[in-house]
Design brief:
The complex is a heterodimer of chains A (about 400) and B (about 350).
Chain A lengths: L10 H13 L3 H27 L1 H32 L6 H18 L12 H24 L7 H23 L11 H5 L14 H7 L4 E4 L2 E4 L6 H21 L1 H11 L1 H6 L4 H26 L8 H14 L4 H29 L12 H12 L14
Antiparallel strand pairs in A: 1-2
Chain B lengths: L12 H4 L6 H20 L2 H26 L7 H18 L4 H20 L7 H21 L5 E3 L2 E3 L2 E2 L4 E2 L2 E2 L4 H22 L3 H11 L1 H6 L4 H26 L2 E2 L6 H14 L4 H27 L5 H26 L3 H15 L5
Antiparallel strand pairs in B: 1-2, 3-6, 4-5
Helix pairs in contact in B: 3-7, 3-8, 3-10, 3-11, 3-12, 4-5, 4-6, 4-10, 5-10, 8-10, 11-12, 12-13
Chain lengths: ~400, ~350
Amino acid sequence: MLNTREKSFSLQGFLDNLQAYFAAKSWRWYLTLFGILAVMAYILNWFVPQAQDNPAAFVRYTYNGIAEGAILALVSVGLVLIYKATDVINFAHGEFMMLGAYIAYEMLVEFKVSFLGIDGLGLVPALIAAAVIMGLLGILVERLILRPLVGEPVISVIMVTIGLSSIIHAGVGLQWGTDAKTWQVRDTALADGILAQVPEVFPEDSEIRQDLETGAYEREIEGSRRPVRFQYDKVYIVLIVSVVILALIFFFKYSKQGIAMRATADDQQASLSMGISVKRIFAITWSIAAMTAGIAGLIVADTGGGAKTDIPGVGLRAFPVIILGGLDSIAGAIVGGLMIGLLEQYAVGYIDPLLQENFASLASASTKNVVPYLVLVVILMFKPYGLFGQKRIERV
Amino acid sequence: MTATQCGVFHESYGSDLQLRPTTMQRIRIVLVLAVVVILPLVANNYLIRISNSIIIAAIGAIGLNILVGYTGQISLGQGAFLAVGAYSSALLTTYYDVPWPIAVILASFITAGIGMMFGIPSLRLKGLYLAVATLAAQQIVQWVLNNWDPIDGIRDGRATNALRIPDPKIFGYQLNQDEKAFYVFGVLILIAVVIVTVNLFRTHVGRAFIAIRDQDIAAEVMGVNIFRYKLLAFATSSFFVGLAGALLAQHSTAISWERFTIEISIQYLAMIIIGGLGTISGSIYGAIFITVLPELLREMGDFLTKSEVLNADDFRLYLPFIQRGAFGVAIVITLILEPEGIVKMWRDIKNYFRLWPFSY
């Protein structure tokens, strides 16, 4: 009886709580809040009219941003998993992605896999193969390289993953060379089937639909104007990422190993004394992370011109994401991924033209790569553990 | 060698303050200096050029080691700070006609300032969060170098990415052409840097750095102003890194942003890891190792192609990957087998022979 709490809602009580919450804050907190609100109001005041001015462009940037963000989220989830379980940031994650892409290339082009007799769905077995092989590789990497370094300082463990990234990069270079390895299997079946449904969202005669199909934004690259078209197939990125993340959520919520993994992330010693094999958990963690990286790499390669050696750059873009969302928060990785993805696209759409108009000396600049880092530094000033990260309490 | 010493005993304050208290250490330092002096007399131009790269790398690695090895603040922004040093010295000499020695010194101070600015997040960030915040420094500086037109050079009336630097001259020697002259100049600077840094860690400032690395909260309780000393560590570290960058610029005829990417940051981190974190000699060993490794591989490959074991075209194609793979393998093997680096290996070898034939 003592534990039952009054559930009924009283406005007076709510207001009292609110008042107590705000009364407890110092004037500095209010000043910071006011400053943040003022800056946000200023930015919105600049941004909203532009977005309203050309809604089609805004929809396109948002759309591309969500697709990019989904990939970043998938990459970041792997990084966060590794960090949560083993307190390591994996600097070889981009290289894992690259390997996944090359495995998919081998499957699709060398072994010519297909699924249900439809050429277009060859991507499905390729994806499964990439996930399985990467999963095994993850276990191998953990066993051979990471386990000897348990208990070493952070910098050593970071460096060993950097060393690993160099080795993978060298191996890929020796095996496949520097040219991009492309494949074209998503031809008619997929495009006519599922993806053909997408244009139906917007009516035929709508301005947005026409804009999405023809009027892609253009950027001047080395003298030639290259149109960057809106890709309907980006829908499937969001689809695959959602499926993978949902699968992960169910795995962590209901499976025995998933629960053991959460327990290990929470308290290694306690879970060790409860009979959980922490070594095995580490191996599973690396395996799952490598799997997600492999899948992400496949998607990046499929939508971005094939398997090539600059895929690790996408892995580098995931670092602001995980710091922004908080190193130990999976929700943070997803939200952060979408935020950075959108931010990059809005930077392309709205900040680049601004720079071109106002600063002659920065005429050819693309702010896509630097804006996430600028935002990151500003946010870290106020929230040093990211948006959702857990604050660590240290004792001496 | 029948009786060995079991410790170093000081009988006066004078001997306690010495950097090299034992005879063996003094003999060793004389030997090292002898090698340094004899090298330019016997070596060819190619070897001296590599030595010059080592000197520059060693100064940069010592700078990075102050921050990472001694103060425990992981930095991925080394390339950015090198770039700030290189570009500021280059711009000062190109556009403002500052004599190059003054430009080098000014560039070091400018880099120290920039380093301090990017050190501000260390007030609240720690460990991996700080590492990624320094990655932000790297990306932002790289973006500015890549996109900002005024720092592009001009060749044949067209803007190029490479910035050409006026020839630095000293006593009639042209440093970017005459490798031997640069060698003499560089060795003197490196010796000065080593003496300054070794002594730095005998002062209260250096001890404060080490206290912050070992346990920052305890250090704060002991009265170390953490924020001040962290900023100071960023500033001293960046000063030497900026010096290395400025020397790099003066040694080359032209610089471009490709030489200051994140790969360079990683190479410098590898130097101090392989050499030994938190040691000055380790920084130098690491600089030698990382600079010599790719050259050695290339020489070996050249030898194999000459004896027709390898096809020359294949070799040229694969060399960058082999070099990169060897770099990765070196890091991984060092960390797994001897996490404390070359310094520890050297100490183990010394101890083995000092105690030989007894194992303890």
